[in-house]
Amino acid sequence: MWKLTIKNLKARKLRLAMTALAVVLGVGFVAGTFVLTDTMNSAFDNLFSDVNDGLDVIVRAESEFESQLGGSRQPIPESLIETVRQVDGVQAAAGNIQGYAQFVTKDGEAVTTGGAPTLGGAWYDEPKGSLVIRDGKAPVGPDQVMVDAATADAHDFKVGDRITVITQVAPRTFEVSGIAGFGEVDSLGGATLATFDLPTSQEVFNKPGVVDSIDVAAESGVSVDELRTRIRRVLPDGVEAADAQAVAAEIADTIKEALGFFNIALLVFAGISLFVGAFLIFNTFSITVAQRTREFALLRALGASGRQVTGAVFLEAIVIGIIASAVGIAAGFGIALVLQVLLGAFGIDLPSDGLVFLPRTGIVAAALGIVVTLVSAIAPARRAAKISPMAAMRETAPKPPRFSPRRTIAGLVVTLIGVGVLFGGLFGDFGEPAQLVGAGAFITFMGVAVLTPLFAGPLANLVGLPMQVMRMPGKLARRNAARNPKRTAATAAALMIGLALVALVTIMGSSIKASTNKVLDESLEADFTVATGGFAPSFISPQVAVDIAALPEVSVVAPLRLGQFRREDKNSFFVVGTNPATLDEVTDLDVVEGSLRSLGDNELLLYRQTADDLGIGLGDTFGMQFASTGTEKLKVVGLFENKSLVQTDYVISLSTYEANFPEKVDFQVFVKVKDGVSTAVARKSIEAVMESYPSLNLENQAETKEKQADQVNQLLSLVTAMLGLALVIALFGITNTLALSVFERTRELGLLRAVGMSRRQTRRMVRWEAVIISIIGAVLGLGIGVFFGWALVKSLESEGISELTIPYLQLLGYVGAAGLAGVVAALFPARRAAKLNVLEAISTE
Amino acid sequence: MSLISNRPGAPASSAQDLLSRAAVVAVDLVKIYGEGEAAVRALDGVSLVVPKGTFTAIMGPSGSGKSTLLQCLAALDDLTSGKVFIGGAEISSLEEKDRTRLRRDKVGFIFQAFNLIPTLDAMENITLPMNLARTSPDKKWLDYLIQTVGLKDRLHHLPGELSGGQQQRVAAARALASRPEIVFADEPTGNLDSRRGQELLQFLRRTVDEFNQTIVMVTHDPFAASHADRVIFLADGRVVEEMVDPKADQILDLIKTLES
Ligand SMILES: Nc1ncnc2c1ncn2[C@@H]1O[C@H](COP(=O)(O)OP(=O)(O)OP(=O)(O)O)[C@@H](O)[C@H]1O
Ligand SMILES: [Mg+2]
User: Fold this and answer.
1) ipTM exceeding 0.90?
2) pLDDT of residue B7
């Protein structure tokens, strides 16, 4: 049988290539995703393992947990630096401060990153850290700043230039004293870095008399642990002496954790591609085995057992699986690069120094490829073995599809289970919702795929109806699409999955946009919002709110601050700190019990649903653990139902916020203009105040809507682009099926050509068949997508997505696009069909 | 013995006259498959004239070039050298596009088997060439054809639901439906039992007698060949013998002499 397998593989190059390519694509995307995420992680590891090079111990305040927002530790007194220096075995010690600092270009634009932080810090000569001066000198005095090499390069900052740096205090101009890099590296993962001397840092980061940490180098011969013990003896309570390398690893971990979501998202996309790819592989196997029915029958007639035939098919699957997986893994490198470029196009710049290939990538990708291939081969192999020799030798005419009760019941049951699991995840209160939703969607797709062959025939006839206008080629295309419902169904199913997901995100996106618009219309009474552009976290100097409030044209200013805390169940959440009185004047949080205005020190306004879930009500206390101050008991004084504006479930007063968070920056400021003052006039005055903060934008409601719509759209296009690969695989599936069908119908094509079908008409016939299959896939996919979208939006109603909008026109556009894509998918098979040599085709068995 | 049959009508007087009165004229056809050592001269200088309204049978041993000749005459294949005229126009130098049109409009073809498109029903198969040409069929002629081949109650069946004989009759109807200049048939009765074969042959004969159709048919069966007006014998790619108004036993005798 082995010999036969090899012979078979050789004899059917085209079909083989088609099957293998299906596996290659699926495996390639999984491998590519792994390579990309590993590359990213290792780049971060490398960056941050170097960041504390030269340092041994870091003295800093203890913290309950690491906040993703940073700045979770209280500062420590500056006087400790001297204390630490005196410790025996300390070679050098220097104070460090970190904070927000954003460069302004020579054109007056704020320098932005693709999401990486814009940092500032204190420079010290000793100990020697990883930051080294490449050009110029260290910053000295209140007038000097040192710029990281990447920023200097990108914005043409030179030693001696005067540039503006925005900090949480105020924008200020500095002279560039020098340019620094991290060893060979120009920047830390795309972050910008401004360094000042220590006194200047204390000033611009608003930390007089204190430092965030003390960086220490040991004398040679003193171990890190020994030094830590010695330093600890002189430290006050609440201050720790940490291992510098452990801190570096901690930083890398925090960043990787923040990126973990991103890794998962990438793997989800890889999974989708593999799932779609599985349909392709399965379909290809089914077709090729069906085409070889006669061959198998002949073998059976010559005495091969059913088991031997199954074995041969299986062996073939293994050979294809192994070889194609190997190629797929290699292709993964290319796909990783493509993904990197794709993400870069959306402003997500990932650090990378050479692609990283872990053994895990090879093992998982190859295992997936081989298993999927084998599973795909099981059914066709068993079918091949069951064929009675005589039945196979007979001319096989297309049989009208029969109604199969077994398939109907199986399909319905699977679909219902899928929908049930999906609903359980969306609306239920058990298990991991995200995983349930994913599994539910997966099972639903499977169920629908089982059902599709039942109505693929009639559907093909229906979709193909308008194609009758194309006369004979259209008619034949329609019949061809309907003649083998299982094949058409499996081919369309791949596209169905891709399009369902695209429809889902489209509906999600438009619903989010409609919902935020509604919220802005109904519950925001402010005339303007001050915010930073883009995705990067906002840093607004509190001075901005103060300055605007001082304007005669302005009546109310409500700043919002953001912080992270842990609940008693150890889950982290965001909390908003605000001025309750002014926020109450510009927003309607829909407070159903108590009031926002009366929110005082150590009191909390809680989202109604969360309060219900936690079983607490007005007057109860709620424990909040803050990174720098530990656990505080807050009294619940109000419950609100509209959280779309504050975007958290927890609202505290500004004074409570300041008591528990060291940061002093706003992330959003709402502004209301005095009655009788025109907004245009007010805008001029406000913008004059904000002029020196180029990182900030003043938006009226329409602009806010537009910005949010832009952000949603950008995210949508990214997701759609990622789903694009699944769509490409699905389209490739159409190409594959058609190419194999053309092969199978060689004789018939020859006959058509012999009785006068032109090459053009032949191409048209194949093309229209592809269009019919595409449209079936699109229609089914959109149906499921709309259903999923409806369910998802409904389940997120409590999260503020109250409006379900289905952009019918856009979805209809997708159907058209799918049809067009079908035309593209048909290019190759159509050409093949048209090029067939009539005589040879006729004489094909 | 002249290659040009004297039936019906007198011998042609001039070349032009001949071309216009003949359905097909073939001049010195040579077809070589392959190259060098492996080259096969499937046709080795075949010339023949098929007058309009005649039924010609082509016979000869297996591998003698019968199918090749038919395919070259029907513009299904290229010639190595030589010329073919159909209805007075040369077709051997046509582009693929024009050949397609020729096959669609001027020529009908019946193969030994697999003549029908499985997704089209009998009626659709019959009108297929006209549909491809976007011309409408002659309704009366179509009715007559369907009547004669006896398929009235089978018109909306798919080929898979028809017997082999019925399928061949549908194929014959298709070949004749557009009233082509000439119909080529390659062993059309090869897969049929004698009764079904007989029915098909009688049908072909009637179209010649009643409608002046021209037919060229390859066959191995002397009884089938006896329905023709004349039989042309091929051997090793050459015309070796010709018989007018053949009877089955005469053909058998001739084959025996040719073989010895
Ligand atoms: N495509 C081809 N390539 C090479 N040689 C060919 C090809 N087709 C036919 N031949 C050769 O040309 C010769 C004539 O073949 P052809 O099919 O015309 O014979 P035939 O008279 O129709 O035979 P049969 O009665 O068996 O159908 C044979 O020797 C055959 O082997
Ligand atoms: Mg032959």
Assistant:
1) no
2) 43
